[in-house]
């Protein structure tokens, strides 16, 4: 199956470079280019994109607002957003993950990293750059105001619906571990881990593994580590 990729960046030169890279792969193709967030949302629906490479800072509707719009649209439930940013430590990245992005990648990443990120996002099997993303979330949530309006009090309550094993798996997911790594740590099969992850996502209303990580931190199940 060919992965349908949408490029959203206000810099035409960068979009051209990404297009050449993506179209050079036999298992993916660029189905559209957007110079702002509103156009990205429209094209994601029109072109039935699988993955959107989304810049954060764009004129008009920015990448953060566009990510929220995609996440909130039932017709775009299968679309995965990968945030591309020049600043890898950026509060906007955390907000984007909360809004429904599957992960983030620095614009300075190697070409192979970008292609791998697209495949991972399309497969929905793992959080992008797990160690980096988890560390980023931890740093920002460590200084978050508990009264922050972005927090969802119901998330903590929904944790009560998880089984003991599902909680254990969630903690491991928040640590940035893959299904295979979790299976080895908990001495169960990868299929069992996948089942627990899917059930936790359904119970917590999480869009993907990135959302599970955010929920784990915001609910207090996992505490940010102080360096």
UniProtKB/TrEMBL annotation:
Domain HTH luxR-type: start-end pairs: 155-220
InterPro entries, per the entry: CheY-like_superfamily, NreC/VraR/RcsB-like_REC, Sig_transdc_resp-reg_C-effctor, Sig_transdc_resp-reg_receiver, Tscrpt_reg_LuxR_C, WalR-like
Origin superkingdom: Bacteria
4-aspartylphosphate, modified sites: 55
Domain (Response regulatory): residue spans on this chain: 4-122
Transmembrane segments: none
The entry's keywords: DNA-binding, Phosphoprotein, Transcription, Transcription regulation
SUPFAM superfamilies, per the entry: C-terminal effector domain of the bipartite response regulators, CheY-like
Entry keyword Lipoprotein: no
Name by which UniProt lists this protein: Response regulator
Phylogenetic placement of the source organism: Bacteria, Bacillati, Actinomycetota, Actinomycetes, Kitasatosporales
């Amino acid at each position: 199956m060919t992965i349908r990729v949408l490029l959203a960046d206000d810099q035409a030169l960068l979009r051209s470079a990404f297009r050449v890279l993506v179209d050079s792969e036999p298992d993916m193709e660029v189905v559209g280019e957007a110079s702002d967030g509103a156009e990205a949302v429209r094209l994601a629906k029109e072109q039935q994109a699988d993955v959107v490479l989304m810049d954060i800072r764009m004129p008009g509707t920015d990448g953060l607002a566009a990510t929220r719009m995609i996440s909130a649209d039932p017709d775009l439930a299968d679309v995965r957003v990968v945030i591309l940013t020049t600043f890898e430590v950026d509060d906007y990245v955390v907000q984007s993950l909360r809004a429904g992005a599957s992960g983030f990648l620095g614009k300075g990443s190697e070409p192979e990293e970008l292609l791998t990120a697209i495949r991972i996002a399309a497969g929905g099997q793992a959080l992008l750059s797990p160690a980096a993303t988890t560390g980023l979330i931890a740093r920002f949530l460590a200084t978050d105001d508990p009264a922050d309006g972005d927090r969802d009090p119901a998330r903590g309550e929904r944790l009560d619906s998880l089984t003991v094993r599902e909680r254990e798996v969630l903690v491991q997911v928040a640590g940035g571990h893959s299904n295979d790594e979790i299976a080895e740590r908990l001495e169960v099969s990868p299929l069992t881990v996948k089942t627990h992850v899917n059930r936790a996502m359904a119970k917590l209303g999480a869009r993907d593994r990135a959302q599970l990580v955010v929920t784990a931190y915001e609910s207090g199940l996992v505490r940010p580590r102080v360096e």
